[in-house]
């Protein structure tokens, strides 16, 4: 397996190809807006977690494509509707935006070559795009697990979906 194959496998496993864990598509399937906004004390809602995933995946996709990124005010900001450019907070459009950015990652990875994946990803950091993208998929998987846990806590999780 090439580095590209590994990253594509990881990204697809997080997005929509069943593998060792639940995909984000399955984790969000059938979730209503009130369920997406539900939260327990001290935790983020599923909607906020999805905003966070959009923010970081889009930010690194922009960097990968040499699109300038703006500064932001701390990690708490990444959980807000504003961070995704989705100020109205519509749940359906938030989910669509996440699916769009993950699809774009897969498209870009399909076109990647070893030179790109082995190139430096971020100024002043000794990390290649392969390293960064491996961490992005781990980050995505972590938050997918949080989404499933929140759904179990609220009683909206059906593993047979």
CATH architecture verdict: Up-down Bundle
Structural shape: globular
CATH class: Mainly Alpha
- Count of beta strands: 0
Order of helices and strands: HHHHHHH
Q: Give me the Rg, rounded.
A: 16 Å
Q: Which ranges are low-confidence, i.e. pLDDT below 50, for 5 or more consecutive residues?
A: none
Number of domains: 1
Content-based structural category? mainly alpha
What percent of residues are in strands? under 5%
The rounded distance between the terminal residues' Cα atoms is 31 Å
Number of helices: 7
CATH homologous superfamily descriptor: dinb family like domain
Biggest sheet details:
none
Tell me, rounded to a whole number, the average pLDDT. 91
Helix content: 55-70%
The CATH topology label is: Four Helix Bundle (Hemerythrin (Met), subunit A)
Chain-wise SSE layout:
Blueprint: H1 3-15, H2 24-28, H3 33-37, H4 46-64, H5 91-110, H6 114-117, H7 129-154
Helix pairs in contact: 1-5, 1-7, 4-5, 4-7
Question: Main attributes?
Answer:
Four Helix Bundle (Hemerythrin (Met), subunit A); 161 residues; mainly alpha
Give an account of the 3D structure.
There is one protein chain. This protein has 161 residues and is mainly α. It has one domain: Four Helix Bundle (Hemerythrin (Met), subunit A) (Up-down Bundle). 57% of the residues lie in helices and 0% in strands. The protein has helices spanning 3-15, 24-28, 33-37, 46-64, 91-110, 114-117, 129-154. The radius of gyration is 16 Å and the shape is globular.
